[in-house]
Design the sequence.
């Protein structure tokens, strides 16, 4: 079985960012199926052609064998002479050349090229590798377990020595020497255990494999600050390839560094701890708390947990009187609730069907310019649906209005988001802060007063919605929804609603967001003069 990342290694050249959406990545599998059918058809045609060539060869062999038994007698017959000449003129042009001169591959290649528009690109490959590293860091995945097909207890494809090597090389090319070290060491271990018998096209010679892996490892250790280990690996490389020019130069450089800076020399008893090279924010308490919550850890006790309740809600609204909605309060201040069975499977299926063709890379609003742009801290694809486009969308809008008691006429369109490989959205606010004056200016409906987040899929692992400053984590459950106010009644932003979408470890995450704005809520949620009410 091939791993997902290995499939991405093999398929290239399209402009679409398939890795950001599991829905769009599915198209690669359909394309793979179509290519398999095309190749099987080509193979059948080639087998038929080769069978014809075999028949020709046997015919020529039998004919020449018979004629050569008595050349003079055979060629002395004018009919035989005529037929021999005809055999390599008319017959050759009509029967042999079409079989030998085969252009079927050209047409086949054109057909495959048409299908390839749905296949991943090299940009997808880089994105997929980065996503795997993000998952590895967020969920503290042991590299050897991942390589052996264990994703926190979930069975996944086992990675070969080649696939580990490629993950290491992709990390290296992006300047990520920490993950280069981890994956090159896995490639080394697997290549050793296989006795040099890696996959068909990967460094089949054991010594060549060791040289290449050691080359990457030595430089990575050097970039991580362990010059002593870099030197040891370089020396090991030179025992395998004494004429390796780069290793010879590096050896001199590392030795000079250790002479000039003895503190970089490590004693045999020392056990170095290599740190992931992160920026200041990703080493912050907020980000570390976010990652801990994603792993399901408890970062702080929930305040007033004993006062949390569950109840049925009607709001005296006609849509809810016959079938009240189930409401669970999961946090009191700020008030955050989960509603159960908001959407049916049929409604979810319809909305996915409507949104999938429109999915584009999700954007964020530039705090200075107000422009929408893609960002590495938000990896997903999204589409927008209007109520008038389909009765199901309008029905969902009406239901959300009945549940919240808010006016949705000034709300944003329903945003459908699909999170692909490692899809996530790092800690953020849904509302515009005071310095973001132009954030929703074009809408003319004020700030985002509330968020209604519908979960349209179960997620096998990961993908939680977490609130780092509350210690709250909400795991997706198909059909359920989360709701919270982003603003106090005074219009001030509620800081503790800062939240994040954790990376999807295994599975596909679909959500439908409804951002409700201030305009139209004047009588439904009256303003208050108290700043934090």
Sequence:
């Amino acid at each position: 079985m091939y791993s997902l990342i290995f499939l991405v290694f093999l398929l290239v050249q399209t402009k679409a960012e398939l890795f950001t959406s599991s829905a769009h990545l599915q198209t690669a599998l359909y394309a793979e199926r179509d290519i398999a059918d095309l190749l099987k058809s080509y193979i059948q045609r080639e087998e038929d052609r080769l069978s014809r060539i075999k028949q020709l060869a046997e015919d020529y062999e039998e004919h020449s064998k018979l004629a050569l038994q008595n050349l003079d007698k055979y060629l002395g017959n004018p009919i035989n002479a005529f037929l021999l000449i005809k055999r390599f003129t008319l017959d050759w042009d009509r029967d042999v050349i079409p079989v030998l001169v085969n252009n079927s591959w050209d047409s086949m290649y054109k057909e495959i090229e048409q299908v390839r528009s749905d296949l991943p690109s090299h940009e997808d490959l880089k994105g997929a590798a980065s996503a795997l590293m993000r998952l590895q860091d967020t969920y503290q995945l042991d590299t050897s377990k991942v390589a052996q097909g264990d994703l926190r207890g979930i069975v996944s494809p086992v990675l070969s020595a080649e696939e580990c090597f490629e993950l290491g090389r992709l990390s290296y090319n992006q300047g990520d020497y920490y993950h280069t070290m981890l994956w090159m060491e896995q490639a080394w271990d697997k290549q050793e255990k296989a006795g040099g018998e890696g996959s068909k096209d990967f460094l089949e010679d054991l010594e060549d494999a060791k040289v290449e892996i050691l080359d990457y490892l030595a430089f990575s250790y050097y970039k991580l600050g362990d010059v002593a280990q870099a030197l040891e690996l370089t020396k090991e490389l030179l025992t395998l390839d004494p004429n390796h020019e780069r290793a010879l130069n590096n050896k001199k450089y590392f030795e000079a560094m250790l002479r000039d800076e003895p503190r970089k020399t490590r004693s045999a008893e020392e056990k170095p701890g290599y740190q992931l090279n992160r920026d200041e924010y990703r080493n912050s308490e907020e980000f570390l708390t976010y990652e801990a919550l994603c792993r399901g850890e408890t970062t702080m006790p929930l305040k007033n947990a004993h006062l949390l309740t569950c109840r049925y809600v009607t709001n005296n609204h006609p849509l809810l009187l016959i079938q009240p909605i189930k409401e669970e309060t999961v946090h009191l201040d700020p008030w955050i609730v989960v509603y159960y069975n908001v959407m049916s499977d049929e409604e979810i299926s319809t909305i996915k069907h409507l949104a999938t063709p429109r999915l584009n890379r999700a954007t964020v609003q530039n705090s200075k310019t107000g422009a929408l742009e893609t960002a590495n801290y938000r990896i997903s694809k999204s589409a927008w649906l209007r109520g008038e486009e389909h009765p199901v969308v309008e029905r969902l809008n009406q239901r959300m209005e009945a549940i919240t008691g808010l006016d949705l006429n000034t709300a944003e369109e329903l945003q459908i988001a699909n999170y692909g490989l490692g899809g996530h959205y790092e800690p953020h606010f849904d509302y515009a802060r005071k310095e973001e004056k132009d954030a929703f200016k074009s809408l003319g409906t004020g700030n985002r007063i509330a968020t209604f987040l519908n979960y349209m899929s179960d997620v096998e692992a990961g993908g939680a919605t977490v609130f780092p400053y509350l210690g709250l984590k909400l795991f997706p459950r198909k059909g359920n929804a989360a709701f919270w106010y982003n603003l106090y009644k005074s219009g001030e932003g509620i800081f503790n609603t800062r939240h994040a979408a954790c990376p999807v470890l295994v599975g596909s995450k679909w959500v439908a967001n409804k951002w409700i704005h201030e305009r139209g809520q004047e009588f439904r949620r009256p303003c208050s003069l108290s700043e934090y009410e």
